[in-house]
């Protein structure tokens, strides 16, 4: 037996039979009834008009999206979602590297995002010699950071449980990048020319050659939001060793840094499909000066990345190693189109983003004493979290 739902009962139309009495309607009630029907008909017309307009806009958007032929058919296209709906909540913790003194390794501390209080210290022998080596797993259980192996002259990867358990070390595995879902770890070693992707659930490692000409490019690498694609944007402006780390204080760079050479190839951007292990060209946004922007991490929507354009059109770093107001773009990797544009706050420097790309840790140099701030590029909100640090992630 099926029972009518409340919605069916509400909109049901009664059927009169010959035996049903007909009650006459008073003139006043009939006037009110006609007025109610007139208002209901007007609401339907207005609603119908808005639906037609919405459907028309959606049809145009759908036509634009479906007209784009991605180089990789498995690569999802960016979706036109409301900006406010994409803002993620503030992560509950963040991890910082705080120097203890000049020339000292410093401490790796786990902090409470809400109170700014220290939760625990998970590392004290940390040397920040590896670019982009400070990573926290999306579930906030594991910390990854690079540590100099002076004897081997390589960067080892330290894997430390956030709860304070014993850490493990992966030799010669610098520049770690965790996929947004936390299932894969991409890293490079001193050999260069190859990308290594480790499945953290099985321990299996895939060694994948870079796209053609990668050895002659200064590459910037980022995961895409689906955790199945890696984007490499290269600039032929400078030939640079993969572990060459320029120092902000003007000291000689650390690592192997070949002498800059003239461009050997045109600027390039390629996307790696983890399933097929095939690189395909990507029409990533390219500046007029021939450079690609620095990739900061996955974007807020499918198929997008966060990028900070570099080159003469962007302000040069200020004496405090911060930037003036500079653009932060969300770029669709399938088309090169700019999805969103935000302005990085004046006198600040980006340290890291969360997995949603909507909460960014920045160093704020606008005050006499610099602070670590949370910045939301979608809303423009900015709030201090704690004192100045060398590195931070969440």
Automatic annotation (TrEMBL):
Membrane spanning residue stretches: 45-65
Keyword terms, alphabetized: Membrane, Transmembrane, Transmembrane helix
Record's keyword annotation contains Membrane: yes
Listed name of the protein: Lipoprotein LpqB beta-propeller domain-containing protein
Source organism (scientific name): Subtercola boreus
């Amino acid at each position: 037996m099926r029972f009518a739902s409340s919605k069916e009962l509400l909109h049901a139309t009664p059927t009169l039979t010959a035996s049903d009495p007909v009650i006459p309607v008073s003139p006043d009630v009939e006037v009110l009834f006609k007025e109610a029907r007139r208002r209901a008909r007007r609401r339907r017309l207005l609603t119908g008009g808005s639906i037609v307009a919405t459907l028309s806009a959606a049809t145009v958007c759908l036509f634009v999206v479906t007209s784009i032929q991605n180089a990789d058919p498995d690569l999802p296209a960016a979706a036109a979602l409301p900006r406010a709906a994409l803002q993620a909540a503030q992560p509950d913790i963040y991890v910082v590297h705080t120097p203890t003194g000049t020339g000292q390794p410093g401490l790796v501390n786990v902090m409470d995002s809400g109170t700014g209080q220290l939760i625990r210290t998970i590392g004290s022998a940390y040397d920040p010699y590896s670019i982009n080596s400070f990573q926290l797993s999306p579930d906030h259980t594991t910390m990854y950071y690079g540590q100099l192996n002076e004897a081997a002259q390589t960067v080892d990867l330290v894997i430390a449980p956030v709860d304070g358990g014993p850490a493990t070390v992966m030799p010669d595995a610098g520049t770690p990048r965790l996929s947004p879902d936390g299932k894969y770890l991409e890293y490079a070693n001193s050999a260069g020319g190859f990308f290594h992707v480790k499945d953290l659930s099985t321990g299996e490692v895939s060694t994948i050659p870079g796209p053609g000409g990668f050895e002659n490019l200064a590459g910037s690498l980022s995961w895409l939001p689906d955790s199945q694609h890696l984007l490499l944007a290269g600039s032929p402006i400078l030939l640079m060793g993969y572990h060459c780390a320029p120092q902000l204080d003007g000291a000689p760079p650390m690592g192997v840094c070949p002498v800059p050479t003239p461009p050997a190839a045109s600027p390039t951007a390629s996307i790696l499909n983890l399933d097929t292990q095939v690189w395909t060209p990507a029409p990533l946004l390219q500046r007029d000066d021939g450079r690609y922007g620095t990739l900061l991490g996955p974007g807020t929507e499918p198929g997008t990345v966060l990028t900070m354009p570099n080159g003469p059109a962007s302000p040069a770093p200020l004496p405090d190693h911060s930037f003036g107001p500079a653009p932060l773009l969300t770029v669709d990797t399938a088309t090169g189109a700019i999805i969103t544009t935000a302005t990085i706050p004046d006198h600040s420097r980006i340290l890291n983003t969360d997995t949603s790309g909507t909460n960014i840790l920045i160093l704020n140099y606008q005050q006499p004493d610099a602070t670590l701030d949370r910045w939301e590029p979608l809303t423009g909100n900015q709030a201090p979290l704690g004192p100045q640090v060398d590195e931070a992630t969440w």
